[in-house]
Amino acid sequence: MPKTVRIALNRPLRRLFDYTVPEGLALTRGQRVQIPFGRQQLTGLVVEIDSPPPEGIPLKPVTGALESWPALPPETVDLLTWASTYYQHPLGECLFTALPPALRKGRSTEVARERFWIPARSDEPLPANAHRQRALLEWVSEQPAPVSERAIRDAGFTLAQIKALADKGRISHAVPATESTTEASPVAPPRLTPAQQQAAEQLQQGRTGFDACLLYGITGSGKTELYLHYLKHQLQPTDQALVLVPEINLTPQTVARFRHYFGDRVVVWHSALNDGDRLATWLKIRNGEPVVLIGTRSAVLLPFAKLKTIIVDEEHDTSYKQGEGFRYSGRDLAVYRAHLNECPVILGSATPSLESYNNALQGKYRLVKLEQRAKEASPPTLKLLDIRSRPLEGGLSRPALQAIRETLERGEQALVFVNRRGFAPIMMCFDCGHIVECPRCDTRLTYHRRDRAMRCHHCDYQTAATSHCPKCQSDAFKPVGQGTERTEDVLSQSLPNIPIVRVDRDSTQRKGSIQAILERVNSGAPCVLVGTQMLAKGHDFPKVTLVVVVNADGGLFSVDFRAPEQLIQTLLQVSGRAGRAERPGTVLIQTCHSDHPLLKSLCNDHYLRIADRLLGEREANRFPPFRHMAIFRAEADTMEASLGLLDSIKPLAQHPGIETWGPLPAMIARRADRHRAQLILLSENRGRLNATLSGVCQALDQRKLPARLRWMIDVDPQETG
Ligand code: ADP
Ligand code: ZN
Ligand code: ZN
């Protein structure tokens, strides 16, 4: 029996706490315990057993264990311990992210069993105005089998209505219908195309144990089918698999396809799950049930007990990087986790990140290519449309509008990509030149005409839109530039009888709205989709044969070294929505820089050629992946305070082999009234960079900083502004 333990708490503290273990209590690493902490009782996780306790300090005993088994198995603790060091984030907070919210707060792992209901033989009258109860009773009576509370809620009823009916004896509990087994329905999967077959063989020829593959599969090449085929082949009936996707709500089709193969073995994990579902899913994973888990970023941290295969779909997607708190990369942790588990990992994309592609070129990953589309159509043809001296309407040039018309006349669908939601990015006075800015940020307010508001897209500020200039009262106060709403309006006017479907964060806020939109589009009637980045992600729109990019120039001259890569990825992903079924697709890219080499190569070369060139530029400038990068960021009520803090740590970071840049104000120097600055560190040597970061963090932890001065660290940052 251990005599002392070291405990991690869910606090931003870079230290652990020592306790004694009461007689008779058996504790292991990863177990949840209750401990006295000051006057409170807190939930902690056991991290070390019998490590020498600090001398001369009397230790308190652990109050008790929350369960007799470790909530986090050894492999999960190892993964998060490594991540804590790599990302320089306090271990306690890292470990607690692997627990569902209910368990973080110290609740029990007992999940109330879900109840099932059937109509009861009773004729207790319902109150005359109880319309919903009556509707619920009717609905329950129509169902062929007992219905779960979840199904009842999904059908739009509430727990209060269930309880009201139960209290009146109109419905009663039932034993659940025999739960469907984990075997999938016996539907024959499509035969793999010869190109898929070849890729499948290459994927399966992996080394035993750890094996990382970069699957470069052009858009529409059928990567999902390939993943399914691979998993079918790879997974034993008792194995667990993890499939990471960027945003699950955007791709209900993917989940449906997995269910088709793996039935109830498929479970999902994303931020919209409620606490009860999260706990239930977490327990399945922890208990080693043979799940195929489809999840977003944080799914990589779950306590799998029998993880045998990992797939990261759209591995280039920037949403794999957590932007605040524990700033980990879900993709990179997936690779490390495969390494810990000695299992294969597949990173798939039509536009691999330069980091992963470079790893493939270095021989760290095997490169598997899938360069033909699964269906008949060949990849879309991309054309640049120079709009320098063309009149535009809602951002659209005449040739673009004409192409949209012709597409609709052929009974097909078109997609228009605009990179900003709202009506227009700026409201400007044409008399005095005033542009409305956010009072709390160094940014301009976006005009949203649907609800006549001006909003900041960087904080939550909004104000009512005015028809006159707030500065000089002139009525020459107008929206400038394009947003999705404006393009939608212009298209509605030019194409009066055609449905225009807008897809952006504003139009998809309601639960289920994206599904409704996708169903409507895939019903096949002619329509025009207008939307942001959201449209670029993984969707399969068989009837879309034309894609128009309203303006490609945004990323061409950015100071962020990742901007060219991200521009090309977005343009190719959105282009990939065209011509996915039988008919070939066309992509029109409007630009004021049709002779820009990057845009020209987009039309002429395939992605890996462009990636080679971009990697060449990164190497010449010694940017990642040719050096490792980390950023210290500071935020305070004044810029002096932020810069001052970073200036004071700069000498601590100046070691041989480490280059420092800054400190400088961030690209958006003021956001929500906080002044932001950053200090960038670069090094060829990961170990040295990490040791330096750790030294600076320790020094900062010793200091007492003013209350509103904050600092954070971002290792392998996605945004350098
Ligand atoms: P990707 O994710 O690579 O862009 P998808 O997996 O969405 O491509 O596949 C593109 C389309 O091709 C989908 O409609 C899919 O159902 C279809 N498809 C994939 N593989 C096959 C196959 N072997 N036979 C017939 N259709 C296929
Ligand atoms: Zn004015
Ligand atoms: Zn703002």
UniProtKB/TrEMBL annotation:
Domain Helicase ATP-binding as annotated: residue spans: 204-370
What GO MF terms are annotated? 3'-5' DNA helicase activity; ATP binding; ATP hydrolysis activity; DNA binding; zinc ion binding
Catalytic EC class: isomerase
Q: Which residues bind Zn(2+) 2?
A: 438, 441, 456, 459
Q: Which CDD domains match?
A: DEXHc_priA (cd17929), SF2_C_priA (cd18804)
Q: Name one GO biological process term.
A: double-strand break repair
InterPro entries, sorted: DEAD/DEAH_box_helicase_dom (IPR011545), Helicase_ATP-bd (IPR014001), Helicase_C-like (IPR001650), P-loop_NTPase (IPR027417), PriA (IPR005259), PriA_3primeBD (IPR041222), PriA_3primeBD_sf (IPR042115), PriA_C (IPR041236)
Assembly and partners are described as: Component of the replication restart primosome.
This chain's function reads: Initiates the restart of stalled replication forks, which reloads the replicative helicase on sites other than the origin of replication. Recognizes and binds to abandoned replication forks and remodels them to uncover a helicase loading site. Promotes assembly of the primosome at these replication forks.
Q: Which protein is depicted?
A: Replication restart protein PriA
